[in-house]
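Write out the bound-state structure for nicotinamide-adenine-dinucleotide.
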Amino acid sequence: MSAEREPIGVIGTGYVGLVTAAGFAEVGNDVWCIDIDADKIGRLEAGEIPIWEPGLKELVAANRERLHFSTDIGDALAHARLLFVAVGTPPTYSGDADLSAVYSVVDAMPASDDHALVMKSTVPCGTGAHIQRRFAETGKAGFCYVSCPEFLKEGSAVADFLDPDRVVVGDDGDWAGQAVVDLYAPLDAPLVRTDIRSAEMTKLASNAFLATKISFINEIANVCDETGADVVEVARGMGLDPRIGPKFLQAGIGFGGSCFPKDVTALKQMAGNTGYHFQLLNAVIEVNELQKRRVVQKLQKHLGPLTQKKIALLGLAFKPNTDDMREASSLVLSARLLADGAAISVYDPVAEEEARKLIPGVTFAESALAAVAGADAVVLVTEWSEFGELDFAAVAGAMDGRLVVDGRNFLDPVAVRGAGLLYEGIGRPSPRRVS
Ligand SMILES: NC(=O)c1ccc[n+]([C@@H]2O[C@H](COP(=O)([O-])OP(=O)(O)OC[C@H]3O[C@@H](n4cnc5c(N)ncnc54)[C@H](O)[C@@H]3O)[C@@H](O)[C@H]2O)c1
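---
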């Protein structure tokens, strides 16, 4: 199979780059994986996977012969004509996307009529046009450009790559766009072939819409807290309407991660730069910021001032099945609790190594039960499946206090209350007796 499949390059071997590389290797492409992080490349060459992503280790191992790792971009240029760019585009202080890594790749390209950059990184609308201008101004007008935004989700990235909802290819109708379409053909996914700007905008609009859905249900949850309705029941009733759908209607302590916060802010900022005030996104961002702090209010409601109170946080990663701590709600929550003088013990099944770099002043426990020992209150921050199987009688026995704040509406309130604990969800007031 690999004989007919063309070799490709992937520049940036992080969450997106490594999954993309392993995924294309799985369908038969030889892939030259490039990163400026020599340590990361060394670990990959040694068969070590630097990130925690279900199924990735196995996929890389199964396709090891087709995966080539290097810090030299020349290796990718020598072997492949399509160079996928999957470098980070983090936010700057202004909220705009930081495109310095993208442009360092662009500027490292030689003049060529036989190569194309294929942008996987999430970039503002207009970036492709700017890169094409830059190529033209520097005598590299023959270098093609394709926008191919990535929609995979951490935690299910391998499955998302191999069975995508859609593949979006934005191009100028040249050989490169068609070559990218051909590359994705074995995945048999719905294809949206469009212009470059529309492809760039599709990615930003998708993430902004999902973030809006989360902030919307979080505001409904906050109203439920005031009115006695249960947001889980409300979301169930809403989600059965096919125009609404059940996904992204889980109320909680807000969205985090490396994509939603930065992409929503980048879209807002990008619109602002063009003179358009994107009012809705201001609210989406503000609701999300406030939502992370609602847990603190719930703790104070039951415990009073938090000074010297012992709080256990279960889960630290921004969502389950990843070790990614970027923009995790646990960062804001732990900082707020420490500022209030609380003592914090934490447990996460896989994110501890990353979390230790970012959360000073907390005690890392080796298990959920060890974290809750002596706690006045427990906060579920990340809905790892193992927390759904906790023995709440044992939790109650280990804690000093009784309060369990379920920041993801993930636990079974009946099981928690059945163990003599006080359950507080997000938008899930105590059941009222129907008389
Ligand atoms: N993480 C996700 O779930 C996700 C999903 C869809 C899209 N995206 C987008 O994909 C892009 C990459 O995200 P990520 O989470 O994989 O980032 P990441 O930080 O995990 O990986 C980026 C990699 O690029 C490398 N790099 C930086 N500059 C480089 C250069 N000049 N040459 C070669 N390598 C370089 C870094 O060392 C790092 O290994 C971002 O634009 C992000 O918004 C991410």
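---
The chain has 18 helices and 14 strands.
The longest strand covers residues 310-314.
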